[in-house]
Amino acid sequence: MTISSLLPGALGFGTAPLGNMFRAIPDDEAAATVEAAWTQGIRYFDTAPFYGAGLSEIRLGDVLAQHPRDEFVLSTKVGRLVLDEIEDPAARDLGEKGGLFEHGRPHTMVNDYSADATLRSIEDSLKRLRTDRLDIVWVHDVAQDFYGDAWLAAYETARTGAFRVLQQLRDEGVIKAWGLGVNRVEPLELTLDLDEPKPDAFLLAGRYTLLDHDRALQRLLPAAAEQRVDIVVGGPYSSGILAGGTHFEYQKAPAVIIDKVERIKAVAARHGVGIKAAALQFSLAHPATVAAIPGATKPSRIAEDVAALEETIPSAFWNELRAEGLIAGDAPAPAPTA
């Protein structure tokens, strides 16, 4: 199956920032942000144990428990277990994402993609989220950015463990869909080539944005569309640099990226286009993508996302981006408008 019929709309809410990504967020601010998403009509929420060692799940669950369970779609991830033991969050080995959740809970996290760990992870997430069921479960971060040259070994453990467990849970109706949630295209390409298990969708973060989309366009998105495996776009603002922030790929943006963003902003200014609108709508324009899930830590950001999705963008804007070499010539753009 695909998940397009499962998702309530093209805009969801990615809750990684609620795990104190980059900074410590007060509980009341986190709660107000989730409630703002609900008020703005968002009904798809994505989280993970990794986000602050369970903090994002706890905060999200506290708010969603106040709303009818049948009225929203919920996804979380497997691949990491949160233990009772305590560790220094700043000292965790997170591959290329070092220090990402140093303000999160100090609970020890261990990587485990085995069948038993997958079942335990789901059970733990249900408790933190204060719910009786999950709609979508993603296998989290089984890719080069976290495991380097050892990523294929981690992937193989997931293929024989987590993948098969999740497919069985889907076939039994315990969950509605499963897939991978990663920041690289290679694990997804590899999964599409499998005879089985067969995922329903992928959550791809940061690889189909205004700033980085060439590789995904080459093979992944066409193959996913052909096999009817839907793509949910995570990080449509490239870790914040396309939304007024300073981060790209979860780190301080390098000069070459800052320069490219400034060039895109200049084109946007000439056409009266908001860069958030351009970023969000670009990520959703490909036939393989069915939703985007930007994150936020302030209630006002949710209204901005909704407005960005609804903003009218002239086709001349996309044409100029192509002419300037700022987006690929074959990248689909939103339907032309006046």
TL;DR of this structure?
This protein is of the alpha/beta class. Helices cover 39% and strands 16% of the residues.
Please explain how this structure is put together.
The protein has about 350 residues and is of the alpha/beta class. It has twelve helices and twelve strands. The protein has an eight-stranded parallel beta sheet. The chain has a two-stranded antiparallel ribbon with strand order 4-5. It is globular.
* Number of beta strands: 12
Provide the helix percentage. Answer: 25-40%
Shape, please? globular
Arithmetic mean of pLDDT: 95
**End-to-end distance:** 36 Å
Describe the largest sheet.
Answer: 8 strands, parallel
Strand order of the largest sheet: 1-2-3-6-7-8-9-12
Question: Structural class of the secondary structure composition?
Answer: alpha/beta
Order of helices and strands: EHEHEEEHEHHHEHEHEEEHHEHH
Count up the helices. 12
The proportion of strand residues reads: 15-25%
Integer-rounded radius of gyration: 19 Å
Spell out the key features of this protein.
two-stranded antiparallel ribbon; globular; alpha/beta; 338 residues
Q: Which SSEs are present, and which pair or pack?
A:
Layout: E1 13-14, H1 27-39, E2 44-46, H2 55-64, E3 73-78, E4 80-86, E5 107-111, H3 115-129, E6 136-140, H4 144-147, H5 151-160, H6 162-171, E7 177-182, H7 186-192, E8 201-205, H8 214-227, E9 230-234, E10 247-248, E11 251-252, H9 255-271, H10 275-284, E12 289-293, H11 299-310, H12 315-323
Parallel strand pairs: 1-2, 2-3, 3-6, 6-7, 7-8, 8-9, 9-12
Antiparallel strand pairs: 4-5, 10-11
Helix pairs in contact: 1-2, 1-11, 3-6, 7-8, 9-12, 10-11
